[in-house]
Specification:
3 helices, alpha+beta, three-stranded antiparallel sheet, 3 strands
Amino acid sequence: MYLYKVLIASMKAFKKIATLFLTLTVLLSSMSFTLNRHLCMGEIEKVSLFNAAEKCNMHTKACHGEEDENSKEDCCEEEKLVLQGQDELIKAPVFQQAQPEMVAVLYLIVSFLSFHNGLVETVPHQHYAPPLIPQDIPVLIQSFLI
């Protein structure tokens, strides 16, 4: 009985975990994410998930030092990675028309299993030996009114 209760409790916990996992899978597959990165001299400085990444201090100063002050090249760059989610979720049909061949096969399997289960008949008390009683208890507890 204890093992049965433990098994039922573990199945309920498994169902909850599976439900949560499948819910998160559907949610994350239908969402879109944007990852913004700010690179300075080829190295990642700032990362942001939904908003634009903040610019670094080098963005306002000259990147190349004093010898290249006239250079207008910017050593910082912005990268935007977009992870597109699924736009439309399509609901699968719950019930489709049954094919006659599949119904016939299913009928044969069910009838075969139910027919063969009734043929083997076992008597549960066939090999049972009654307990050995050292004294005849009904004779010991008899009382006679005289």
